[in-house]
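Hey, quick one: can you model this chain's 3D structure?
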Amino acid sequence: MSTATSRGLGVIELLTGEVDGFPLGVLAERLGAGKSSAHRTVTELVELGFIRQDAVSGNYVLGMKIVSLAQRHLARIPLVDLAQTFLDQLAAESGELARLSIVDGTSLIWIAKSEGGRSSLRVDPDAGREVMLSCTASGLAWLSTKSDERALELIDEQGGYPRLDEAGPKAPHNAQEYLQLLHRVREEGFAHLEDAFEVGVAAIAVPVVPPTGQETSYVLNIAGPTARLTAERCHALLPSLRRAVSDMTALSWNHSPRKDSRT
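Sure thing. Here's the predicted structure for all 263 residues.
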């Protein structure tokens, strides 16, 4: 990858989620580039429509073009459309937030959701945001399909475990604590966490395992306040979640391109 390309992608990553944007000096500093190089990069990105300069603050902010491209790409993924029906059903039955995350290389990404009524959890990671593997039920569900060694490697690649002030009180903070949770998930076939990613939030998740021996590519999740989504209620919802996973697996397999049977 060229230096210019790296800088351009770096600017887009820095501006993602920053609604107020950054001035040129901050972008240059965080990119580790000189102001002149950073200025050439942002100028080209502005011309291409990927970022814009705010007329009042002078800060550079992400443009809608990149959002539009991402939405168009998501719309082309067959499973996203297929999954929405199951997410809506889970949300309606549970009254909580149902979510789908998809494996993208060594990351797990939130891509779709459905909210179950006015009392459901309203705080949800933005579509396209990376799932924290070390302290979420979805992360645990996915990594339970990996070996212990690979699971710990993927957590380290993402940045390791949260500090005590970065997550809930029940989040694992080292490999030993994480493996204890991971082994339990493998035995039970689902992941359940509360007060881990965030205080007052509980979640249950199940991986979508293809029937072809391929690696897990998706995870279904239900999340809500711990006051409502107790351990007992999670177990009561588990059959519905597993049924949705089974039905979605069958549908996604039927809609996916089949390989030549001779290969």
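One thing worth noting: Residues 119-125, 255-263 have pLDDT under 50 and may be disordered.
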